[in-house]
Amino acid sequence: MLFNILFLNINIYFKYLFFMLNTTLFFILRFSTNIIYYLLLLFCCYCFDIFALFCFVSFLIIIIINTMITLFVHLFMFIIWYFLLLEHILI
Predict the structure, then answer these.
(1) Cβ-Cβ contacts under 8 Å for 42 (sequence gap 6 or more)
(2) pTM > 0.85: yes or no
(3) For residue 2, pLDDT beyond 60
(4) What tens digit of pLDDT does each residue of 66-84 get?
(5) For the chain, how many structural domains are there in total?
(6) What is the pLDDT of residue 63?
(7) Distance CA 73, CA 75 (A)
(8) I need a labelling partner for 17 at 20 to 30 A (CA). Which of 1, 40, 55, 77 fits?
(9) What share of the chain is helix, strand, coil (3-state, %, to 5)?
(10) What is the CB neighbour count within 10 angstroms for residue 90?
(11) SS3 49
């Protein structure tokens, strides 16, 4: 009985750690693509100089919104998994 409880808790810890690693890697990947988009935009504004300021500001706003949505989604998922982990520990 005790072994089953310990094994269940260890299993949940590993699932939680794997989930956090997955989400962190996903966030890093998403953020790095935002930076690549930003650099691409700077290059296009420098080369073509057509509505450069408008393009720059609008694309920067899109990148910021995209990053904030990603942050909130990961924070929400982290909170859910944290409470699930606490529930399994307390039971």
Answers:
(1) 56
(2) no
(3) no
(4) 777 777 777 777 777 777 7
(5) 1
(6) 73
(7) 5
(8) 1
(9) 95, 0, 5
(10) 6
(11) coil
